[in-house]
Design goal:
Blueprint (H helix, E strand, L loop, with lengths): L1 H22 L5 H22 L6 H33 L1
Helix pairs in contact: 1-2, 1-3, 2-3
Length: 90
């Protein structure tokens, strides 16, 4: 059971980091940043609850934090573009 759980934590952590890296490529970072944030948080929670996969804690936490930052950045960019478009019409 713990080996399967550890493999799941590793997959979630690696996937989250991949989402963060792909999200840097453009506006696709909005959903990918949110997904990285969610999956990174899931991995950290699983590590905290079951004390398995401790070696992935740092990467999971990094993916969680970077995913949140990336999501916030692209959300601000989107809101800025919408604001500029609205101001340009008036």
């Amino acid at each position: 059971m713990s080996a399967e759980l550890e493999a799941l934590i590793e997959r979630k952590t690696t996937g989250s980091l991949i989402y963060v890296l792909l999200g840097l490529l453009g506006p696709v970072g909005l959903p990918l940043g949110a997904l990285a944030f969610y999956r990174g948080r899931q991995a950290v929670s699983m590590i905290d609850e079951r004390h398995v996969g401790e070696q992935y804690r740092g990467r999971a936490r990094a993916a969680w934090i970077l995913g949140g930052i990336e999501f916030g950045f692209w959300l601000l960019v989107l809101l800025g573009v919408l604001l500029l478009a609205a101001l340009g019409r008036s």
